[in-house]
Design brief:
alpha+beta; 354 residues; 8-stranded mixed β-sheet; 28% strand; 6-stranded mixed β-sheet
């Protein structure tokens, strides 16, 4: 898969770097919008580097060796040949992942599908690299104010995006750690991992058109993607000290309620949303694990996640928040609760290094 690339997108995720080459400027724009907070000045090679080459072209299946399939998923079929894995997206796209060279070449005629494959590959590969450094994702909306963090663990479709946009609309002192997957280190500190924000629905969200991209996805419904550039200075750049862990639920009622809960409730939510990683895209990590050694390493990863989750839980108050049908009322109820607790009154970074 070859092609003349122009103006590669360069990204740096806490020292794990990515370069994306493509002759399609629209694809490069989309990738840059997806990861605005991690844009790098040049495609420098970090401690781990992933090089992606993406082509808007018909996949060349005739050049493939006659391999037998090794993994089947609803998205694709994988064929392994030593350190190389071929990923077939059911005739619509074809990718070649070389683990030794850490290169990922993909060809697809459909822009939306090509974009989604590149986005998910970056997310998967970078997340695995960060986890080796003890930075683990948690499926949550992360809110920061004054150096303190509040995490809202909710299932997919549970209201994280609506709550995120509501708090970002409030402005200071609230800033975004991540709409979907902030990072937690071994001491329980929360690190920013902001990505593009996906909004469901046929109507575009109320942001400038240059910050909104409409896409059709492989398995799920279409989304409007909002680039982080739309939120200006409302993004966090440094680690925050965790204070609140909210376990979210939905209700058919109109009102929002918040009640104190025990550590068992928080532990169960973190087991699902962080240790197991329910709701987090982990496709490539598992697709490409084929040996007993890989499975052994996975057990060590689960232990590391559990240790970080325990450290986080020890530093948090746990509450159950039940969101009603009125999004504005939900935001106001949570805001008033946080204000009553003095959330965010500390100086930014006061405990970030502890």
């Amino acid at each position: 898969m070859s092609g003349e690339a122009a103006a590669p997108a360069a990204l740096d995720f806490y020292g794990a770097t990515v370069s994306v080459e493509s002759a399609d400027p629209e694809l490069l724009r989309r990738v840059s919008d997806d990861f605005t907070a991690f844009a790098a000045a040049s495609p420098a090679r970090g401690r781990e580097h992933l090089a992606i080459r993406a082509e808007r072209s018909r996949p060349d299946y005739d050049s493939l060796p006659p391999l037998l399939s090794t993994v089947h998923t609803p998205r694709n079929v994988c064929y392994s040949d030593g350190s190389v894995t071929y990923v077939d997206y059911f005739g619509k796209a074809l990718a070649l992942w070389d683990r030794e060279r850490r290169t990922f070449d993909v060809a697809c005629e459909e822009l939306d599908l090509l974009h989604e494959i590149v986005y998910l590959t970056i997310l998967s590969r970078v997340s695995e690299a960060l986890e080796r450094d003890g930075l683990h994702r948690v499926h949550a909306f992360g809110l920061e104010a004054g150096g303190e963090a509040a995490l809202f663990l909710m299932p997919s479709g549970g209201g994280k995006t609506t709550l995120t946009l509501g708090f970002l609309g409030l402005g200071a002192p609230f800033r975004l750690l991540s709409e979907d997957s902030p990072l937690v280190d071994r001491k329980g500190r929360v690190h920013p991992f902001p990505l593009r924000i996906g909004v469901l629905g046929s109507e575009p969200p109320p942001f400038p058109p240059e910050h909104v991209t409409f896409i059709r996805r492989m398995e799920f419904g279409p989304k409007h993607l909002v680039a982080l550039a739309a939120f200006g200075d409302r993004l966090v750049r440094e680690a925050a000290s965790p204070r609140f862990l909210f376990v979210g639920r939905r209700s058919l009622g109109k009102g929002c309620t918040i009640r104190r809960a025990g550590t068992r409730t928080g532990a169960k939510a973190l087991l699902e949303g962080m240790v197991v990683g329910v709701g987090l895209y982990q496709g490539v990590e598992f697709l490409l694990r084929t040996s007993l050694l890989d499975l052994f390493r996975m057990s060590g990863l689960l232990f590391s996640r559990a240790r970080a989750a325990r450290a986080l839980l020890r530093r948090c108050e746990v509450h159950v928040v039940t969101l009603g049908r009125d999004p504005a009322a939900n935001v106001e109820s949570v805001r008033a609760f946080l204000a009553s607790k003095g959330f965010g009154v500390k100086e930014p970074g006061a405990e970030a290094g502890t």
